[in-house]
Design a protein that fits this description.
Blueprint: E1 7-16, E2 22-27, E3 33-34, E4 37-39, H1 46-58, E5 65-70, E6 75-78, E7 94-104, E8 121-127, H2 132-135, H3 141-159
Parallel strand pairs: 1-7
Antiparallel strand pairs: 1-4, 2-3, 2-8, 5-7, 6-7
Length: 172
Amino acid sequence: MIDPDGFRPNVAMVLARDDGQVFLARRVTHDGWQFPQGGIRSDEMPEDAMFRELREETGLLPRHVEVLATTPGWLNYRLPRHHLRLGSKPLCIGQKQVWFLLRLLGEDQDFNLEHGEIPEFDEWRWVDYWSPLSEVVNFKRDVYRRALLYFVPSLEEAMGQEIPPVPADIAQ
């Protein structure tokens, strides 16, 4: 499903532990690391899509997480020209995403990257909160920065401690 502006509706998840570290996974057959994300079906609300994608990509169930916050609207990113499928109609020029901040209630052993029909990730790890800004592909960096900045107050409140500021070497 592509909207009239050429964006595919999508959900993305920042999955955090109580120590402030976040889940980052490597895409199968790529060297790219990212947060879980996926498309919203025409019959789904964003939260329903989030729980479906979370299960498909990580094996986690709703009981394994607590939703701490959601972005109030869409965060968009555009695909680089070489990623566009120019022959497809309608043309998808990028994704518009509703982001969710999730607190892990489960354990590491609850993860199962092979739960989905076709696994999207082949490896995962916990990283410092701001680390994804230096690891995600360039065209997603700005949307990751905006989501992470938006979620800082909610995660700090949940953890009862401050998230360190964005390191200068990855601030922009």
